[in-house]
Each structure stands twice: as C-alpha cells, then as structure tokens.
Amino acid sequence: MTTIPLTSAPYSGALASALGLPIVQKARNGRPRIMITDDDARVASSIRALLTTFDYDVEVSNSALEAVGRLSDNSYDLMLLDLRMPGIDGHQTMDLLAHSGIEVPVIVVSGEKDIDAAVGALKRGAINYLRKPFRSEELINAVGQALQKRQLQIEQEEMRHRLECSERMYRYLVDSLPDIIYTLDPDGHFTYVNDRAQHLLGYTRDQLIGEHYSSIVHEEDLDRARYVFQERRVGDRASRNVELRMKSCNAMGEQMVFDNTLLTISFNSTALYTKAATDKEPQLFGTFGVARDITDLKRAERRILYQAYHDVLTDLPNRALFKDRLDLATIHASRNNTGIAVMFVDLDGFKLVNDTLGHHMGDQLLQQVAQRMRSNLRKGDTLARVGGDEFALLLPEVKRRDDAATIAQKFLWSLEQPFELGGQVVHLSASIGIALFPEDGTTMEDLLRHADIAMYQVKVAGKNGHQFYDAQMEAAANEKVSVVHALHRAIELNQLEVYYQPQIAVGTRRIVGAEALLRWNHPERGILAAGEFLPFVEENGLMRLMTAWLIDNVCRDLQKWNNSNHSIERISINLSPQCFDRGDIGTRIAHALRAHGIPSSQLEVEITENVFISNPQNAVMQLSALADIGVSIAVDDFGTGYSSLAYLQRFPVHTLKIDRSFVRDIVDPGGHYPMVLAVISIANAMSLKVIAEGVETTEQAAYLEAAGCSLMQGFLFAPALACDAFTASLQVDG
Predict the structure, then answer these.
(1) Alpha helices per DSSP H over 218-294
(2) Which residues contact 150 (CB under 8 A, 6 or more apart)?
(3) Domain spans of the chain, in order of start
C-alpha cells in the first residue's frame, strides 16, 4: 500500500483530484491586483495614480465588457466600479460577474446621489460604496480594508480546505487520520485512544487507558462534556460539533479546542456481552468518539469576527458594533424606563494635521485621541470610531442631561491638551453633538442622526464645544439639503446669472471696468445675492463648477462687447481658495480666453488674503502662471484678514481693493482715517492700482479721491447690474 505523508499544507492538485476534492486558490504573496472600471478616463487615471503609490498592481478598463473579460481568470483581488457607464452600467456589470461565476470583491465608486443606487450595489454584493467626490484617505482606507478582508477570507478558506481534506482522507487512511479516536466504557473511562492523542495533548496511550475523561477536560466545560463522553443516542440524534477545551501536558501547556463527533455503539448480545433472558433491549457497551483539533480555526474565526466589528487603527468598536450595542441599549432602556445619551464627536483641525504632517502622523494622532477619550469612559460606555476623524459614544443609564454634558466637557478638556507627534506639538479640539433617549428619538437611527445634526451646529457656531439636539436643528438641516439640491439644479436649468458692479474712474466718471458677481434667479425666492448661497456652494464642493461657469459666461459677454466696440478695460472675477486646490485654474482661464478670443489684459482675478495662508507656494505658482499670460491679480478685502507685506512681495499682485468696512467709516471729508490711508500708501509704494469698494456717499468719494484713490465702485455710482443693463450703461458711457 502506498503511504502518503500528511502535512499541514494544502494537498497537491493531483492528490486532491484523486480524492475528489476542490482545489482552493492560495493567497498570493505578490502585489495585490486591482481593476478600475470607469468610463471617465481622468477619474480612472487619478485613482490609478493614487493606488500605485501604495505598491498596488492597478489596471484600468473603460468598459464593463472589457473588465469582465479580463476578470475571467479570477486573478484580481479587487474591482473599483463606476455605476454610470454607457452600455452596461455598474449594476448590470455586477450581475454579469455573478452570472459568469467571477468572484472578485467590488467597491463602487460613483457620483450617484440616489440612495437606491447604493442599495442596489450593496444588494448585489458590493463591499463598500464611495460617492464622488471622495477624499483620498477614504479610498485608501476602503481599498486597504477590502484587500485585508480578501486575504483573511482566502486564509480561512485554505484552513477550511485543510479540514475538509482531513475528513476525506479518513475514508482512505483510517490508521493515519489526524484526529483523536477514542472509546469509553459506560462509566466514562477510556478503553482506547489512538496515537494522535499523544501528538495533540501530550498524553501517551498508556497514560489515558483506564482514566476518566474528566481528567483531561477543562473544569468549566465538564457539564457539557457529560453529553459528549457519556452519549446514549445513536444516528442523527448523536451529539455533533460540541466544542470543549481540553487540558494538555505538552511543552506549550496550552489549552486546546476540539470539535467532537460522537456515536453510541450497540452490540449484538451474542457476541461479547450477556443479557438476562427476559431482556430484549440491547445493552450499552460504551461510547465511540472522534475529536478534531480546531484551535487554529477558532483563532482565525475570532480574529475575523473581531476585525469585522472593530477599527483596525484604534482598536475601538466600529460603526457596525456601535449600532448593535445602541440597538440593544434602546431596548433595555425602554424596558427599564432609563435614559441613554448618544454623542457624535468630530475632530476640529484634523485634516490640517493630516495634510501637513502626513497620514502616518494623522494615524498616530487618531490613536492618541482614542486613548484619551477611552480614559474618560464609565464602565458600560461604548466609544466607537465611525469615520475618518469621527467618533460615536453610547452612554447607557444616563439619569440627567447634565451627566452627558459633564462627560462631553471631559472629552473637550482632554483633547485640548497638546499632542506630541514626531517631536512636534499639535493642538486639537472637537465638536460634539448629543442626542438623548427617549426625548430626541426612540430608535437607533434617529439618535445617531440627531446627534450628528447637533454636532454640525457646533461646527457652524465656531467648533470646540458640545450641543444638545433640538428639533429646530433638523429643520435647518433639511433646508440645507434642499438648497444643495437646488444648487445642482440651478446650473442644469440655467438659473444662474452674472451681474456687473461698475468700476468708475472718478476724474472722468467713466466706466473702466466691473466686478463680475454671481446671482441665482431662484424660481421661488427671486434674485439671490452670492452671500445667500455661496457658503453652501463652498461647503459642498460646487465652487469649482460654478467658477468655471462664471469664467465662461464673463468671457462670452466680453466677446459680445468687443464685437460691438464697447470700451471696457477689464472685468474682475472672484476666485475662492478652493479654485486653487487642483492646480488647473490657470489652464481653465487660458482656455476660456482662447475660446472666446479675449485679450488676457481684459480679465482680472480677485483673491482674498486667505489664499496666501492656505497653501502659499501652490498659490504663487498658479497666480504667476496667470500673470505670465497677462491676467492681472487683485487682492480683495485687503487689510481685513492675515495681511502681510511679505505676501504682496511674493505674489504677482497688480491691484489692492480697499474693503467696504474701511470705506463705511468715512463720514467727514476732512477727517483722518488711517486704515484707508495705509492701504493707499502701500499701493503707491509698490506701484499697484487701488480701488475702493462700497462707496455710497459723496463724502466718502471726496475723501478717497483727495487721498489718491481714483477708482471706485459702489451704490453712489451704480448698483450691480444685469448683463443687459450693464451693456446699456456702456452705450451711454461711450
């Protein structure tokens, strides 16, 4: 007979085939392979560039059919899939993968805002759903978690495969079976054990024969062991898969876990046993059992289960475990008429630390934050990490509102103490929203949502504090969602307009330029000034889109005026700091100028001093590129922010604008207004133009003109005008 050695490694393909066993795919030790499927080449390219920096093997396909064809060899570890694609969309692609038997984890990366799109993707097996635009760390974390889960699944499958192989081999090689085989007499004493017992437990056969089973069973498992080792049932009713902890006397001295399959044997009385003449029922001879070591499997299952419900970075419960505990807490509180507090904690300033010091330092900061917050918990409280820099806290048995406020304040105090990261001192704060059960909601979903809404109110109010939920907050939040949706529709339905604020040369009273201002022709509220909707635009990532619309429309109007021989020196456009984030604002403006045939000298961009602070090096490069093609640069609201003459020297600035707050203070032409004089002096010293905005009275105009400011704008001369009205004023002025 051929002897086949047994090892802990998976069986070879030939042996598995001979035994009728499936061959599982081994976990690869090389770089993870990732397929990006997105018809938007720019998005796919940017994702690929980001993931390649993490040493992933990334490929891109622009269509679903191409992707499915390349995935058919099942050699990919992850797929990043867009939903909205021509031909076969993302949902259909997932259906096709399932129909084709292609098993690959899928993360949906889509701009779809409809919740049905996300639900549809998750129902089809997507392991995550990221909405465009997303933060780089969100994508990297999602990909890392997906690949880690993939690796653990493959390892678990290999482990289960080894156990299945052991079961099949039992049929062929009983004497070499890697399980403990034993028999017991009716009193529970061992009558037989195989050599595997010595290999696993350290006991020789002679040591166990005649011993009671309780001598090797963990004391806490003796009650369950009675059903295993003194089993009296047969067939399908016999005990199966009962887990027991066994004592061992090996060098490790480690407790081991076994999965026991038991069978009670009934013998014919004419064979080895006797029975009374009147007894027609078979007598119990003893118990036969098979015990398999599943210690490694239990460890793997515990590890997978733990990681499924805990955050890998901070070792805190994750969102899933937090929701489970919150759900149980609400049920318990309802039954016992007790209170619950739910807190939503968002770190203030974490993004700045992450961007300036790097993600590695950001991760260390999150770990330190988690440790400080954990130190302030009561027994029974649950702290969870539910997002990048977001935490949630469950406080059961809260009797008073002040108790929750006290704990929130402890969190704030602990976070206000400086953190040390790589030799650098970092300061941090947090915004905390609090919802109470049952006042603010009786369901898990309502409590989490209301705590989140309250946290947002703290952000709006200036951060670094806590706030209890109030019903009026939800109305404001719903209004915000409505406004954001309407803003998306405003661009599609052409509801935006450009108004022009004339800039006047006081000496000639002629219009020499204008400031382009956005207006929203709201279908219900009428014409809305920029201040009524631009904060929502900036907060929700629409500024670049609206700025592109503004640039194109201003260039179109300039083209019309030039073709009609209307004299206009320049139009200025306000640029938000967000417009400089991607580094393409200069390219956008240059393209618009070329497309409409506009001389670059007719366009001026207005920036605030915040651009100098957020990323000065990046801003210098982009503004210099604009200046190189002839676009002039104006600093708006000069003197109200982080003013610095050093910035003026570094930046290619051509114009300073005196803020309306300084102009408003002028009430006497013969008075002394040092801030106005200072701005004009700086402009003169650096050979810059100076424009005063918000000029509303003749006294203001007279003082400014006497001080050397000859360019002004404001209601004294004209309000902001719609395009047609401004065109008419150019005709009159001409």
Answers:
(1) 222-229
(2) 32, 77, 78, 105
(3) 33-156, 179-269+282-300, 314-469, 482-733
H or E segment at 357? helix 350-357
Enter the tokens of residue 157. 């499958």
Residues 6+ apart with CB under 8 A from 705: 506, 507
Write the pLDDT tens digit of every residue in 448-460.
889 998 998 888 7
Report how far Cα 132 is from the mean position of its chain's Cα atoms. 11
Q: Is 253 exposed, middle or buried (0-12, 13-18, 19+ CB in 10 A)?
A: exposed
Is the pLDDT assigned to residue 716 strictly greater than 60?
yes
Q: Find how far residue 50's CA is from the centre of its chain.
A: 16
Torsion, Cα of 530, 531, 535, 541 (10° steps): 10
- The confidence score (pLDDT) of residue 391 equals 94
More confident residue, 394 or 192: 394
Residue 10 binned pLDDT confidence (cut-offs 50, 70, 90): very low
Pick among 3.40.50.1970, 2.10.109.10, 3.30.450.20, 3.40.50.2300: CATH of 179-269+282-300 = 3.30.450.20
For residues 341-345, average pLDDT: 94
Architecture in CATH for domain 482-733: Alpha-Beta Barrel (3.20)
Q: What's the CA gap between 424 and 654, in Å, rounded?
A: 38
Residues pairing with 180 in the sheet:
291
Q: Which residue do the tokens 């105009």 mark?
A: 701
* DSSP letters spanning 551-585: HHHHHHHHHHHHHTT----EEEEE--GGGGSSS-H
Confidence of residue 280 (pLDDT cuts 50, 70, 90): low
Spatial neighbors of 342 by CB under 8 A, at least 6 apart, are 326, 392, 393, 394, 395, 434, 435, 436, 437, 447, 448, 450, 451
Q: Which residue has the tokens 């008075």?
A: 671
